Amino acid sequence: MENLALIDSFSEFKDDKLIDRVTLMAILEDVFRNALKKKFGSDDNFDIIINPDKGDMEIWQRRVIVADDDLDLDHLEITLTEARKIEPDFEIGEEVSEEVKLIDLGRRAILALRQNLISKIHEHDNTNLYKQFKDLIGEIYTAEVHHVRPRVVILVDDEGNEIILPKEKQIPSDFFRKGDNVRGIIENVELKGNKPQIIMSRTSEKFLEKLFEQEIPEVFDGLIMVKNVVRIPGEKAKVAVDSYDDRIDPVGACVGMKGSRIHGIVRELGNENIDVINYTSNIQLYITRALSPAKVSSIKINEETKRAEVFLKLEEVSKAIGRGGHNIKLAGQLTGYELDVIREGNVAEEEDDVELTEFSDEIDEWVIEEFAKIGLDTARSILKQDVNDLVRRTDLEEETILEVMRILKEEFNA
């Protein structure tokens, strides 16, 4: 019972760690064998008998009987006189098994055993945690905000595991308070020393793909396939979808009536603008769809260089490029082609058109850059636009846009 009481005192925290008794006893055996090696130099002549059902264990030391004046190694040998105190009919050369009480190891040894046990259990927990979350990489996971720091948000799941959401893995519009539930994908598990560090991401393309699986039954069931996902987190994303069944409209099924199905995904991603397009192996058609809402006149493809010249009417150029150049950038990433925009238009007008940079003495450089971001880099390309539309697509005030148009009109009316 002495051993049992000591083992219980060692393992009093096992319930908090959710470690089963069999595993605990195996760890205990390893800890005790290490202690025996340290004390006696070897554990070869020790037997450890484990009873997992009772949570008890016994340690027996085997020693060979030698003559009283031949004792050399007392941890391997025992004198005949001492042996006969255990059993009167023992003879020289026989082996004696004697139980070792843990209390006999001494107070310092017991404290060391306890500390070693704690260390081994932490190591066991960390190994299990690492394996558990390694299997969850690429899957959506939900955890609660525990602490918000400038460069990282610390999350805790229902089992008390700590999960890291770095600033660069957060959507720019994300704002968290303690107690908030946060969804993301487990992107990586790294070992920092012996402790696993679990990294969550909300900016990964995989997160958006998994949200489609979660929110759209046809994707979950495999009737609709997500072929590719590209995104600028919090701004814009493009998702190419396909279906084996011709009766299913993959885009319509993903978007839903009046956007009802995709609305939850958009809200989860901080109102990220999501374009869902039909995938096709016809690269010209794929590029045309990827550049939506712009209407493409024609496309010239170079397969070797993976470049495509996209011909657009002047009024379609800004739509193809999109706010901040996001649309054309994502279209290129989605299709795997470098896209070059070629403007089509009235030849006479193009010949007397003027680059916007020519007006740098009258128009501030940052204003010129704002127009360039949406594909407007000449005087006529701006004059053809609607003022309200320009206010919506740029960060410019209406007053600034009207002043720019006045300056440009004077150029052609002079």
UniProtKB/TrEMBL annotation:
SUPFAM superfamilies listed in its UniProt record: Nucleic acid-binding proteins (SSF50249), Prokaryotic type KH domain (KH-domain type II) (SSF54814), Transcription factor NusA, N-terminal domain (SSF69705)
Pfam families (alphabetical): KH_NusA_1st, KH_NusA_2nd, NusA_N
Residue span(s) of domain Transcription factor NusA N-terminal: 6-125
Keywords on record: Cytoplasm, RNA-binding, Transcription, Transcription antitermination, Transcription regulation, Transcription termination
Record InterPro entries: KH_dom-like_a/b (IPR015946), KH_NusA_2nd (IPR058582), KH_sf_prok-type (IPR009019), NA-bd_OB-fold (IPR012340), NusA_N_sf (IPR036555), TF_NusA (IPR010213), TF_NusA_bacterial (IPR030842), TF_NusA_KH_1st (IPR025249)
Domain NusA-like second KH: 284-347
Entry's localization field: Cytoplasm
CDD domains: KH-II_NusA_rpt1 (cd02134), KH-II_NusA_rpt2 (cd22529), S1_NusA (cd04455)
Residue intervals of the Transcription factor NusA first KH domain: 202-279
Assembly behavior: Monomer. Binds directly to the core enzyme of the DNA-dependent RNA polymerase and to nascent RNA.
Biological function: Participates in both transcription termination and antitermination.
Family, as annotated: Belongs to the NusA family.
NCBIfam families membership: NusA
Name the record gives this protein: Transcription termination/antitermination protein NusA
Species this protein is from: Flavobacterium myungsuense
Gene symbol of the encoding locus: nusA
